Amino acid sequence: MPGLLLGDEAPNFEADTTQGRIRFHDFLGDSWGILFSHPRDFTPVCTTELGRAAKLAAEFSKRNVKMIALSIDSVQDHLSWCKDINAYNGEQPAEKLPFPIIADKNRELAVQLGMLDPDEQDKDGMPLTARVVFVFGPDKKLKLSILYPATTGRNFDEILRVVDSLQLTAYKKVATPVDWKPGDSVMVVPTLADEEAKKLFPKGVFTKELPSGKKYLRYTPQPE
Ligand code: BEZ
Q1: Distance of CA 48 from the midpoint of ligand 1 (Å)
Q2: Dihedral of alpha carbons 69, 72, 76, 82, sign
Q3: For a tag site, which of 73, 88, 155, 204 has the least CB within 10 Å?
Q4: Residue 9 gets which letter from DSSP?
Q5: Which cellular component appears as one GO term in the record (predicted)?
Q6: Is ligand 1 within 6 A of the CB of residue 100?
């Protein structure tokens, strides 16, 4: 079964995009990367998603995350669609977005990356691409994967939130609890001994008492 699992290295594919031909590893360089796929050009949900992604480009760039989209259809179609996306955002109908869109006309990448949605088909009965989000770390390994069907648009605020969690937890021995937002307290990872946790988190470690008597619910203010 094709697809990508957490920890897998991003395939170093070559593709035509709205910003020229790319080799994926060269495109990523030493940055984090986000690849988000779309079922088809000139479709309503995708247009709203790409409009929002364009508006958030500065936020991703601040986090050192390179963005790239993928949709079935040609570069020419993508460029023409970009005008609609910019107009939807209330801007000049330019052909440019702040990130490239891969042209996956023959669905080769969508198949290789496990992105097809069998429930949504084009007029020829071919499956469309689902709404996948892949986040790659600077080591080019897959850190996060989200898979939505074509009929459900994603929440790009949530995608930024998970990037914040991924980057924090990549560098600190913490995990982020339910509904965490940047600035909230975080959990000390279970593998860290109490003594070590005290040294690593000088702002303090707060343990919640539980009926089991087990001391696993350990909070600390978000480390710098
Ligand atoms: C959309 O982007 O609106 C869409 C695309 C494919 C299936 C359903 C909705």
Answers
A1: 11
A2: negative
A3: 204
A4: B
A5: mitochondrion
A6: no
Q: Verify whether residue 46 is a known catalytic residue.
A: yes
Cβ contact 166:144 at 8 Å: yes
Amino acid present at 10? A
Ligand 1 pocket test: which of 37, 38, 40, 132 has the largest number of ligand atoms within 8 Å of its C-beta? Answer: 40
Tens of pLDDT, residue by residue over 87-123, are: 999 999 999 999 999 999 999 999 999 999 889 898 8
**pTM of the full predicted structure?**
0.95
**Two structure tokens written together for 160:** 């930024």
45 lines ligand 1 (CB under 6 A): yes
